[in-house]
Amino acid sequence: MRYGIRSITMDEIATQLGISKKTIYQFFTDKDDMVMAVIDLEIQKNEMDCIHFRDQSENAVHQIFLALESLEELLKSTNPLMLYDLEKHHPRSFKKLKEFKYQFLYKMIIDNLEWGMSEELYRDDIQLDIAAKCRIESAFLVFNLDLFPHSRYKISEVNYELSMLFIHGIVTANGKKLIEKYTIERNKKLSHEQKV
Questions:
Q1: Using CA atoms, how far apart are residues 100 and 111, in angstroms rounded to an integer?
Q2: Quick one: pLDDT at residue 196?
Q3: pLDDT band per the 50, 70, 90 thresholds, residue 83
Q4: What gap in Å lies between CA 193 and CA 40, rounded to an integer?
């Protein structure tokens, strides 16, 4: 996550783990097999996190803020090249990630949109399929180095801005009040973390 996939060798992995490369190959056929195992673990963790956010949310807007906070933590330790490496050098794992995006994440977003509409926090004229696909793709735009080179943009700031553009586009006046509430809470938390 920190250095990208391509730049890390099996020798470095063995050294970091304090084991021999031979031991690694008892569990993994090759680096591609290892990458697939890591992607599987990340997907499982992400699924559990998403379900947890839904279950702990006060409302649909709150769910988005909880997910945003978690994603910001993940992005702090993620190299933007990681997704590029995955697509270019590990197509099987990239396909698995794409399936996760358009099956599990898609359903979670649709559920959130329907929840927000039923609470009258989101507009009632949202075209669910378009909005869900827009949200998925905008969440992964942070990894597009052509648009957001990390020498010029902080990945967490890009993520936050894209998330706010999305949520402001779907909320009602009642939803906007909740955005303001959760933004104030978020800013207080960030201010406290910077002091510590």
A1: 16
A2: 64
A3: confident
A4: 31
Domain ranges of the chain: 10-195
Answering whether pTM is above 0.90, one says no
> What pLDDT does residue 152 have?
93
CA-based R_g, the chain, Å: 19
pLDDT digits 0-9 by tens, 29-72: 999 999 999 999 999 999 999 999 999 999 999 999 999 988 88
What is the assigned CATH class of domain 10-195?
mainly alpha
The mean pLDDT of the chain is 92
Instruction: Please name the residue that has the structure tokens 């967490």.
Output: 156
Distance CA 131, CA 180 (A): 22
